[in-house]
């Protein structure tokens, strides 16, 4: 790579003169011919300024922070798939990243993360947790939640649309007695926290109210894991007025529900129809394969990275909230009834 010294030698002028010409110093007293000659030689020698070299070699480091603990993340493939998608696109785009868990970040000194240029925060965070993240970096994008929308970027999925599509599908098959199994929505680092709005449950309540069949005894809530899906379905199967179908708010819960149904001597979909939510990889291999609402986690990771890089590079100051579409995937876990 050509240097200022090389250009000065070829142009037969001083190094300082070349430097001032290349930096367009208007106070330099030099002839126009000399100025043009230096610029032409610099172009011929493919000279790149220090500023341009820095911009081209700029490396950014992203902190990927999940509100889940490591153990809980492993029990919910949905959030794990989001994180893996982000890491994949970071590697593809030569962006350095550090995968961190919120419980460890809070207990550590934030100065340990001074090299982080931006944060991709996966999950639900409380106000005091967000304040910790802000001390690390002001460039934050929240994924699967959207706090303080005027301050932070966020990416969420269209939970309302996906839930309605699932319920309309069951309704179209003749089901009117539709139960709901979902989770209490609280910040994951504090399971005793205040319950937040659950848009899947809200969509379910509104839908069942519209068809004049909303019953509280058909609503079961725990946590997004197979264990609670199993326990809640066990309770649901004891109802005298048992639903003919269930909308289950996450696929891991649906997997647990499958086990409970078979243990109690029922069959899917002959006795009970099931629709899940997420479309994690294992659902197509269940028996029968699970009908579910697909969330495009791969696209979510790609979009999140592109969005945070806009912030880091200063290309935008106004916050973005991006709502990604979902799609009902019909498989074999539902049956038409009269």
UniProtKB/TrEMBL annotation:
This is LacI family transcriptional regulator. Residues 2-58 form the HTH lacI-type domain. Keywords: DNA-binding, Transcription, Transcription regulation. GO terms for molecular function: DNA-binding transcription factor activity; transcription cis-regulatory region binding. The keyword Signal does not apply. Transmembrane segments: none annotated. Gene3D superfamilies: 3.40.50.2300, lambda repressor-like DNA-binding domains.
